[in-house]
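User: Can you predict the 3D structure for this chain?
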Amino acid sequence: MAKSFEPENKLPNIIGQGTKITGDIETNGDIRIDGNIEGNINSKGKVVIGSNGLIKGEVFCSNAEVAGSLNGKITVSELLSLKASSKVNGDIKTGKLNIEPGAIFSGTCNMGNQATSGGAVQGPPKEVKK
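Assistant: Here is the predicted structure, written as structure tokens:
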């Protein structure tokens, strides 16, 4: 049988404070953002937005912890945790949601199995170039 090769990434990806990235990010592992991202993030692992982190775009992942700011939609197949310092301006789709007192959220929220289409995270539609 042919098996597709996906390298196991034991080390998390870290976008440090003071770093700004414009563009989409795809990873099979976990990622922590303490800088600024303008673009979409698609992770098969956990996405952590640190207290200084800012994302302007959509996030697709299996688990997420937000302590910073997110301006855009977030789709999480398992658990989304909004920390007290978090500011989310956008729609949420998640299997489970944990919100600490003090978290700021503006948008709609769909929770449960129907929110994440059977637990599989679907990334943004791919562009077709003509």
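The two ends are 34 Å apart (CA to CA). The CA atoms of residues 25 and 41 lie 5 Å apart.
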